[in-house]
Amino acid sequence: MSSWRLILARNAAARNCIIASRIPNFPLSQSCIPSQPPLKPQPTPPSSTASPRSVSRFFLPNDFRFFSPKTDITFDDDPPQNDAVPLWNETEPQEAALEEGEGQLEIEEEIHEINDERLESLRVLLQSNDDRSFESSLNDMCLALDHNSVARIIEIPSVSGENLVRFFNWARNDKSFKVSPSVLETVVSKVCQGMKKKEIYSLWDLVRHIGEEEKGVLNVGILNELISSLSKLGKGKAALEVFDKLEDFEIVPNADIYYFTVEALCRRKAFDLAWSVCRKMIDSQMVLEDVEKIGSMVSWFCKGKMAREAHEVYMAMEEKRKQLPLSCISFLVAKLCQENETVGLALKVLADIQGERRHRAIKPFSAVVRALCRIKDLDAAKKLVLEMIADDPPPGNAVFNFVITGYCKVGEMGQAVEMMKLLESRGLKPDLYAYAVLMSGYSNGGEMEESRKILEEAKKKHRKLTPVMYHTLVRGYCKLEQFDKALELLTEMKDFGVRPSADEYEKLIQSLCLKALDWEMAEKLQEEMKENGLHLKGITRALIRAVKEMKQCLIFVILFLLAISSSHVVWQQVAILMQKNNSEHKSSEVMVGSELNLMC
Fold first, then answer.
1. Dihedrals φ, ψ of 329, to 5°?
2. Which of 38, 80, 262, 588 could form a disulfide with 581 if both were Cys (CB 3.0 to 4.6 A apart)?
3. Could you tell me if 28 and 66 are in contact, meaning their C-beta atoms sit under 8 angstroms apart?
4. Coil, helix or strand for 60?
């Protein structure tokens, strides 16, 4: 056992002395093994490099492992008892010792040189997830950094954005390395590709410090990519913070950086802040070259219920001869038409649609016609329809129906009929909706005969009618208290193949109860509804019962009133007889009795 302990102790002592001998001016470098010349320092991986910092951590001059003043181990030239365990690596060639200054210079050059082996060690470190000793591990490598070496390091693939930012922060502290725009652009591009919130926030901290400390390093492309990444992450306030730093960094913004900032804010629905940025872009007369991006900005403001602001963006781009996509213009016009105050702006936008695009712009033109009819500017709507007939896009039934409906609502039936004739002159067939609107307009004005004429005309051109048309007539006849004609319409509906709906029955029953007090006919219609599988509302059923009970009570009231009125006449006759009795000195009882008998 003692021999094995001796062998292990001597091996450990030899290993420690070999390591210590590589360090210049170290106490043990010249005294551990005097019989052997010092070995030439060999390059080792970064994790095991015997730098003064790493060796002094484990080997202090007064506290060496396996070295004790009480040990009995002596170093002599006798070979160990076990020849199978050599103290030196006999295969390694031994060279003459270098002088102290030359050895130190060679060691420093080997430590600072970034060769393939050290680059591989860096790759392992950068791709690791151990963040406890990242900076200290970099310090232990004692790397000599310059522009080319840093460029090689940041091109290492599969490095997380967090480690890349930490390495770049560490490299900035080296006086031999100066940050250049090209290297920083590469770092920003690689970190932004990962699209991780924490990494991009760390990148923004790095970029902000560089911009505050070093002028001329940042450029608009770096901030463009950073704001674009924040936009994709939905971090609008952070993107606005980057945008607000442009003036401090002495960077002139371009149109793209305005676009990315507006995009980020609109994604967070911060439309007011987005408009403030867009306002700056318009005032600076910046022009986006990509019309798709312009269309996106217009659409964002439209979605945010800022149609006026979207129209300003449109006008600014129109002045620069930038034509937005037709889909974007249609969306803008539709949003402008939703508010009465901006319908005029929508009408002006239509004037900018020219050429072949106008032929395909039926959707925005229809929206403006409908909006003009809604605000009761029917003359402008009619004028626009005539322009569509002359210069495209050709109007369809829907456009004519908007104008016909508008004229019918204001009671101008002559203009409505004129538009109907214009529709027919275009080779279009009026649909049932147009006939129903005309019938409703005549019915509201009490012109039931004209309404019946429209119905007859509709029968000639359409094989099947809708219940709405008959409902319009039933309502008009009930309004005029012409219940017989209303009941005739129910029979006509069945003969023409139109099944009466509950609305027709409801309207007719209510009119019979409230105006004619004809609860008997109302009950018949209720039974007819049950046979047809229709359901009468509870309030209407209650109305029938109330009218029925009221009419019965009314009979008793009339009889009671007749009785009261008859007794009053009797007492008047009694008073007259009493006066006669007093004047003629006759017996009042006989006279009253005889008169009462006569009255009975």
1. -65, -40
2. 588
3. no
4. strand
Q: What is the DSSP letter of 63?
A: B
Kindly state the tokens that stand for 377: 């500017």
71: exposed, middle or buried (Cβ count in 10 Å: 0-12, 13-18, 19+): exposed
Decide: helix, strand or coil at residue 122. Answer: helix
| Size of the chain, expressed as the number of residues it contains | 600
In angstroms, the CA 268 to CA 62 distance is: 65
CB atoms within 10 A of CB 252: 10
Q: Can you tell me the distance from the alpha carbon of 91 to that of 78, in angstroms, rounded to the nearest whole number?
A: 21
Query: With left for phi above 0 and alpha for psi between -120 and 50, is residue 76 left, alpha or beta?
Result: beta
Residue 363 DSSP SS3: helix
Integer Cα distance of 533 and 57 in angstroms: 98
CA dist., res. 256 & res. 188, Å (int): 17
Q: What pLDDT score does 105 carry?
A: 39
pLDDT computed for residue 445 by the predictor: 86
Specify the DSSP element, H or E, that contains 203. Answer: helix 197-213
Q: What is the CA radius of gyration of the chain?
A: 51
Amino acid identity of 79?
P
Q: How far apart are CA 383 and CA 327, in angstroms?
A: 25
* CATH homologous superfamily, domain 287-430: Tetratricopeptide repeat domain (1.25.40.10)
CA atoms of 92 and 89, how far apart (whole Å): 6
Contact in structure between 267 and 234 (CB atoms under 8 Å): yes
Which tokens belong to 567? 């007794």
Tell me the pLDDT tens digit for each residue of 445-463: 888 889 989 988 988 888 8
Q: How far is CA 79 from CA 11, 13, 33, 71, 180, in A?
A: 13, 15, 14, 19, 61
Mean pLDDT estimate for the chain: 76
Question: How much is the pLDDT for 573?
Answer: 55
Q: Where are the alpha helices (DSSP H) in 70-180?
A: 100-112, 116-127, 134-141, 147-154, 161-172
State how far the Cα of 345 lies from the Cα of 326, in Å rounded to an integer. 17
Residue 489 phi/psi, 5-degree rounding, is -65, -35
Query: Which residue reads 């060639």 in tokens?
Result: 93
Tens of pLDDT, residue by residue over 4-58, are 566 666 666 666 666 655 555 444 444 444 444 444 444 444 444 444 333 333 4
pLDDT digits (tens, 9 = 90+) for 413-451: 999 999 999 999 988 999 999 999 999 999 888 888 899
Q: Taking the CB of residue 552, how many other CB atoms lie within 10 A of it?
A: 11
Give the C-alpha separation, 30 to 88, whole Å: 17
Contact 119, 106 (CB under 8 A): no
Say whether 137 sits in a helix, a strand or coil: helix
Res 352 pLDDT > 60: yes
Q: What is the pLDDT of residue 98?
A: 34
Lowest mean pLDDT among 196-210, 309-323, 551-565: 551-565
The residue whose two tokens read 């945010």 is 304
* Per-domain boundaries in the chain: 2-110, 287-430, 543-599
Q: Return the higher-pLDDT residue of 251 and 140.
A: 251
How far is it, in rounded angstroms, from Cα 164 to Cα 127?
A: 9
Using alpha carbons, select from 144, 138, 145, 97 the residue that is nearest to residue 121: 138
